[in-house]
Amino acid sequence: MKTKKLTVLALLSAVALTIFMVELQIPPLTPIPGVKLGLANIITVYTVYALGAKEGAAVLFVRIFLGALFSGNFGTIFYSGGGGALAILTTIALKPVLKSKQLWIAGCLGAIAHSIGQMIVAVWATGTPSLLIYLPILILCSIFAGVFTGLCAQFLINRGNKIWKTIFK
Fold this sequence. Notes:
Layout: H1 3-25, H2 41-50, H3 53-71, H4 76-94, H5 103-126, H6 135-159, H7 161-168
Helix pairs in contact: 1-2, 1-3, 2-3, 2-6, 3-4, 4-5, 5-6
């Protein structure tokens, strides 16, 4: 891997991690446990569409690992990893289908996939299938959060093209 590309990925990972850590300091927006905006996913969606699938997955998993480590809650790595894996696979699968004006769809479907992945891990870890009753609420919240993060990534891709070309070239 070229030094410049590695540096860009490290920078994107640092930005995603910083956003994640700042978001941890924001009080919950709803009384529903586990619901948050997922603002760091803006960087993940952006990276997949700007640099590629492998790069997006690398940024995501570095952020998940370091986020669990720095937040002091390493147990969440399984939930975030399960949700993140399903979300990144969804985002990567949508890349050839979506245009740059449709990234909000990738954000939305990725967020839904993240909730499903987390729920699969939760049911597996606890052995409690009745947790699935909670899934429709998570999916509804994921739609709103995912549209927002997807629109932010779409803005970065579409409006920041000139700036990003000077940085990444």
